[in-house]
Protein: Alpha/beta hydrolase
Amino acid sequence: MPIRWIRWLVLGVITAATFATVPTGPASADPVDDIPGGLESFYHQQLDWGSCNDAVLDGAGAQCAGVVVPLDYNRPDSRTLTVAISRLPATDPARRHGVMLSNPGGPGGPGLGMMVDLRDRLTPEVRARYDLIGMDPRGIGRSDPVNCALPLPTMLFSAGFDAFGFARDTALAAALAASCVAPDPEKARQITTRNTARDMDIIRSAFGERRLNYYGGSYGTYLGAVYSQMFPQRTDRMVLDSAMDPDRYWIGTYQDMGAVNEAGLDDWANWAARRDADYHFGSSGPQVRAFVEDMIRRAATHPVVGNGYLIDEHTVPMMLLALLSNPQKNADLAEVVRLVADGVSGLPVDLEQLKTKISGGVPMNASGMAAVLCGDRAAPRDPAWYRRNIESVRATQPVFGAFANNITACAFWPDPIEEITAVHNSAPALILQATGDTRTPYQQGLALHEDLTGSRMVTLADTRVHGVLRADLSRCVNETVNTYFRDGTLPDADITCRPDPGSLPDH
Structure:
């Protein structure tokens, strides 16, 4: 592949898509007796706490440790990995309920610092009861990361408009897969959700806990659901925010993102049209959409390249996708559209400003994302399958269909080491889902709710947002979550919440 293609594609596509200590002694014996064979030393290990060597974590009073886990759980006497975790201890040890582990999503999101942010959404009563635990999952961040030789910021691109563009993405996907697997095939194939769930159970035991409490967002909901299926007697209070349907993970999840992001674009276009005096994209929603679609076509014929960055038909839809997941970012999205439109029209454009606008709060690790997704579920091998799917939705999904159905590195990855997890159990859980979620559509939350028969669902109505538990969005949601974490009390029935007045841009 020409070096200039790699340099162009590496650029500025950010998908976004994403914590005084209490001593913890060793768990002298696993509180639950059925330790899998050969894993006793892992379950009984002592954690060595120290500085996190991170300004935010250290400033928050967190400490960090490494948890040793088997690379291959079928061969626990062979290679090991070290999973990095952080801890913000319960503020009232006398009322401590246990540990609350977390995952920010992705997959590919490092979560070591997640609890520094999440704790601000928890009441003092909840903070008193839990050690808040952040974790970089295996293969990501500080946890013995997979490092693909091809340094792409994302494994996800839009296929563009023609056969040449699709062929370019196919070649890039194949090159990415080879660069991830070839350096260490054994390690690359063991970075999976099921193995991360096993790591979580070792973490639980290392704290001497009988059960695990958990908060997961986006992909983190799938990880939590898999843990509840594999370790049903060891789950306690679980909150699953913006849930994935386990039956559609992961190919179906991306396919479902096409239609909901088209709807999200229409919602944003109507907002921008009411501000035509500011942005000059058009005075009606259809006019704004037409402006955006024409901008992408111009990006195909007049790409912008500079400082290792690329603006073209493959990357622009991903820039839009990064900001459509939160209506509070409407103005940022308008600025991105203006920057891109100016750039493809030949005007000077500040590419560093563009990168700042589209970068997510939790940077995704493309190598870790590829390893987890491709290691969890086999993808179709035939490129023609993807091309047919792309063409079948062009009319109804003109902006996002070529992303939602595009080929990825998984088409060239080795077969998974295990079958995908079928989730169906009665573990209690609180599922949070917005009706207009552009990353994990509402029907996916409904599907997980059916799979987890002991769950309750909180619907955030009439809201285009991914990530429902936010400090400034819905008091109804936050009170429900905090009541559950405080008392272990799920609502008697599913409930519907709404955003607080003034929390979203006016419509």
In short: The domain at 40-145+189-241 is CATH 3.40.50.1820 (Rossmann fold). The two ends are 47 Å apart (CA to CA). The chain is about 40% helix and 10% strand.
